Amino acid sequence: MQIPRDAVLLRIFIGEDDKFEQKPLYEAIVLKARELQLAGATVLRGPMGYGHSSHLHTTKILRLSQDLPLVIEIVDTQEKIDGFLQTLNGMMASGLVTLEKVQVLQYGAPSPEQS
Q1: Which helix (H) or strand (E) holds 48?
Q2: Domain boundaries, the chain
Q3: Pfam families under this entry (predicted)?
């Protein structure tokens, strides 16, 4: 699979406790992205954060250490990301979703002429 140099980064901000059909939302999103053959997805877990409610989520305070912030990043073509956004909309009740244009410098193993 190849990604063009000009691509789109989809960034999804959710909480660790968010669910979709009784499974963790982050897991459902990554599995759906894989099923739809998007180039790749990564889930990043944050030690501290807050969202629209301004409620602080952190690992520093034991009673607040649940529902830590997660960021899911997916990079692919504009067309594939646009198609995935429709699916994502049906999976998320809340959260923040951002898009930005990126340049892909390397994806996978270098080509033989780069070795």
Answers
A1: strand 48-49
A2: 6-105
A3: DUF190
C-alpha dihedral (80, 14, 17, 28), degrees to nearest 10: 0
**Could you confirm whether domain 6-105 is CATH 3.30.70.120?**
yes
pLDDT tens-digit map of 80-113: 999 999 999 999 988 999 999 999 998 877 656 6
Tell me the per-residue pLDDT of 28-80, one tens digit each, with 9 for 90 and over: 999 999 999 999 999 999 888 887 777 777 776 665 557 889 999 999 999 99
Number of H helices, E strands in the chain: 2, 8
Query: Would you say 21 and 92 are in contact if contact means Cβ atoms under 8 Å apart?
Result: no
* C-alpha span between 12 and 20 (Å, rounded): 15
